[in-house]
Every structure is written in structure tokens, then in C-alpha cells.
Design goal:
With 127 residues, this protein is an alpha+beta fold. The chain is built from 4 helices and 5 strands, in the order ββαβαββαα. The protein has helices spanning 27-34, 67-73, 103-112, 114-126; strands at residues 3-10, 16-20, 52-57, 83-85, 96-101.
Length: 127
């Protein structure tokens, strides 16, 4: 089964968070399964850019970006050659896909989930 690794998201022991998912899973659904802060203001229907991520490894394991996704990516911040929308990029083959969730996406997640934001802020005050 494919593995998605989130390089900037850390588990309590400090390791990068990884999740194993079936072929055909979107990057957004993988993030939900891994419980990482990945935005999706539109609910994952390719109507916003809040699920924007950078694929740092395994881009060839994903479905090709279609015109609709590219049109929405044009509205995202700091688009790069490795940019994808998590709601549109499906894992097509086994292997490792390494993801950096964008600042835009992380902020959207915490705006969508204020309780999660409060918990994060409280844990940061303890350190």
C-alpha cells in the first residue's frame, strides 16, 4: 500500500507523521486519516485552493493534474512545480509520497477548526 509522509507534521515522539492508504486515495483523504492540519474550505470539491500542498517526493505516483485543478491552483499562494490540490491528487501506485502542507492550507484548517487551533495554542504555551 502507498505511504504518505508529512515532513513538517510531527508525532508526539518527534517523528514525521506517516499514513498508509489504499491506491485511489486523495491526498486530502490521506491527511484526514493521518489527522494532520490540511485545509479544505470547500469540502474537497475543487472550488478553492485551501488544500494546496507541495509534493516533495513521489509526484509520479499521483494522477495527472487536470485543467480544473490547474485553474484553481492559479488562485493559490506560492505555487510551485510540485504544487497539487489535495482534493484532486489521487495516489495511483504503491510507493512513498512526501508532502509539505502549505501555510495557506494549515491556516485554513485552523480557521475551519477553532477547537484544534485553541488546543495547538495551549500546547505551544506549555513549551
Amino acid at each position: 500500500m502507498p505511504i504518505v509522509r508529512y515532513t513538517k507534521e510531527k508525532s508526539p515522539d518527534g517523528a514525521a507523521i506517516e499514513v498508509e492508504v489504499p491506491v485511489g486515495t486523495t491526498l486530502l483523504d490521506a491527511a484526514r486519516k493521518a489527522h494532520v492540519p490540511h485545509g479544505s474550505a470547500c469540502g474537497g470539491v475543487c472550488a478553492c485552493s485551501t488544500c494546496h500542498v507541495y509534493v516533495t517526493e513521489g509526484l509520479s505516483l499521483l494522477s495527472e493534474a487536470e485543467d480544473e485543478e490547474l485553474d484553481i491552483l492559479d488562485k493559490a499562494f506560492d505555487v510551485r512545480s510540485s504544487s497539487r490540490l489535495g482534493c484532486q491528487a489521487k495516489i495511483q501506485r504503491d510507493g512513498l509520497v512526501t508532502i509539505d502542507i502549505t501555510r495557506e492550507s494549515r491556516e485554513a484548517f485552523y480557521n475551519e477548526h477553532p477547537d484544534e487551533r485553541r488546543a495547538l495554542e495551549a500546547s505551544q504555551k506549555k513549551h
